[in-house]
Amino acid sequence: MATDVSGIVLHKLLSVPSEALEIFPKLKPSFFGAGYVNIYTAINKFYTKHNALPSFYDLLLVSRDGLTKNNIKSLEALEVPEDIDWLLLTGALIDQYTQDQTLTKLDTFLDTITAMDTQEIKRALTDIVFYLEEKTHIAEEVYTVADLSLAEDEELGLRVPLGINNSFDAITGGIALTELVLIGGERGSGKSIVAVALVLNQYMQGNTSALFSIEMRAQEIYWRMLSSLAGVKFAAIRKNNLSDVEHGRVAKVLKDMYLDSDALYDKFTQDRDYKAFEKELQKTKKLKPENQMVIIDNQQLTLADIDMNIQKLKSQAGEKLKLVVVDYVNQIEIEDIYSWQSQITLSKGLKNLARKHNIVIVAPYQIDKTGEARFSKGLLDAVDIAVILKAGKDHIAFETTKARNIPPTKFASGIEWESLCISPQDYIIDTMGDDEPDGKKVKSIGGKKVKRSDDDIPF
Q1: How far is CA 271 from the centre of its chain?
Q2: What is the CATH number for 107?
Q3: Domain that residue 118 falls in
Q4: Residues 224, 420 contacting (CB under 8 angstroms)
Q5: Per-residue pLDDT for 423 more than 80?
Q6: 175: which strand partners?
Q7: What is the distance between the alpha carbons of residues 405 and 407, in angstroms, rounded to a whole number?
Q8: Do residues 336 and 197 share a domain?
Q9: CA dist., res. 28 & res. 61, Å (int)
Q10: Beta strand extents in 161-238 (DSSP E only)
């Protein structure tokens, strides 16, 4: 005979309510079956009104519904062992709920599996896992002053410099782990260039980072990475028209990504056969395990996909995985992408994943001509920092529209459009000139201006 875990939990709670206050916030109505959910609801209603948990007597006194009264009396008559650990009991309750939900979800899955292809099967199983995680996750963590330290939060490892602008990194001190950053721009404004730059900056800091791409294919992202790291023209890579010198720069970048690759690189410097070098490198050598750039190319990306891939990367890279980029937030698969309620849920879901995995999540998003988020202003509700960008002739200008713990901030960074390389040095925008269409003249600090043709613009 199966143990009535739901009944035992509620019986113990009503028998010794003074001991149950610590575990009560961890209980959810969905954990209790049809026979007990009305009792849980009555307990929760009593607590909301009186700010205290009821006893059996209290609950019977305030209950008006005859069915609920009978259920409470039946529960009181239940035989329950006296010495049961609360932690063990709540764990058993959640396990029982998880088992029941899993069986229900798998029944539905098995009914439709014959009509699914491989990718659909994987997606359906991933959705089940994400559903269970969302329904059973207990996020509460309780601290006292004795558990916390002023010095601990000053460690650089707890904050992540974005690397796209030195002044912004100085103001923020880096983005704190668990935070969500959204970067807004109109279509074709350079959001994806910034997204790739963030991943590159993590790589150059010795970390592993990941970019979830929905619209842009992995091959193009890889080309952009090589263009920026090697300082070669993106158009030349895209058209397979690199010179011998440029192939040498790319080979040096690739060599630094792999373990024990010096001998192969030395051979390349002699024979200058780039194709042979790249093929042998990928065939015989391994990437550095804690210093990688990972691309997840998924045109039907969901929150569950993001969650599962981050878990996998965390198991491989550990604390070296500090930042993940999702390009871009408006294209993540949800039931009604144009609903403002869904957009808020989506933003909150990304924030929850940042907290769950103790990382920074950055996601570009589309804005309209007025600078507002498309579909929903509520998209920014769960965001810690929101920034909008605008591309100029030789710079990208940024402005915060929401920021916790820092004042409203404007800054600009130089960009080499030919190589897509964003400089972290500040650009000064001189409003007295007329070089820009909006009457602003841009001057570079420590850099030169680069002419560009429309063919070289990658957006």
Answers
A1: 44
A2: 1.10.860
A3: 5-136
A4: yes
A5: yes
A6: 160
A7: 7
A8: yes
A9: 24
A10: 175-176, 180-185, 208-213
Examine residue 144 and state whether it is found in any structural domain, yes or no.
Answer: no
pLDDT score recorded for residue 50: 85
Q: State whether 83 and 186 are in the same domain.
A: no
Residue type for 121, please? I
Same domain, 111 and 201: no
Nearest to 377 by CA among 69, 368, 416, 73: 368
User: Looking at residue 183, what is its pLDDT?
Assistant: 92
**Which of the four pLDDT bands, split at 50, 70 and 90, describes residue 206?**
very high
Residues 78 and 195 in one domain: no
Pairing of strands 180-185, 385-391: parallel
Span 259-269, average pLDDT: 95
Three-state secondary-structure class, residue 425: strand
Q: What is the pTM of this model?
A: 0.73
| Residues in CB range of 230: below 8 A, 6 or more apart | 246, 249, 250, 252, 253, 419
Residues 118 and 160 grouped into a single domain = no
Nearest to 33 by CA among 57, 15, 9: 9
Q: How many domains are there within the chain? A: 2
Answer whether the bond into residue 328 is a cis peptide, omega within 30°: yes
CATH number of domain containing 329: 3.40.50.300
Cα 18 to Cα 66, 81, 245, 442, distances in angstroms = 27, 18, 75, 67
Reported as a pLDDT band with limits 50, 70 and 90, residue 193 is very high
- Higher-pLDDT residue of 118, 151: 118
- Run of H or E residues at 349: helix 340-357
Return phi, psi of residue 175, to 5°.
-85, 130
Same domain, 175 and 131: no
Helix, strand or coil for residue 428? strand
pLDDT of residue 31 exceeding 70, the answer is yes
* Cα 54 from Cα 9, distance rounded (Å): 14
Give yes or no: residues 164 and 122 share one domain. Answer: no
CA distance linking residue 314 with residue 317, whole number of Å? 5
Chain Cα centroid distance, residue 44: 33
What is the per-residue pLDDT for 438? 42
Q: Is 271 among the domain residues? A: no
Domain assignment of residue 261, yes or no: no
In a domain, 232, yes or no: no
Query: Same domain, yes or no, for 57 and 197?
Result: no
Cα angle at 232 between 282 and 183, to 5 degrees?
Answer: 90
Nearest to 179 by CA among 206, 153, 205: 153
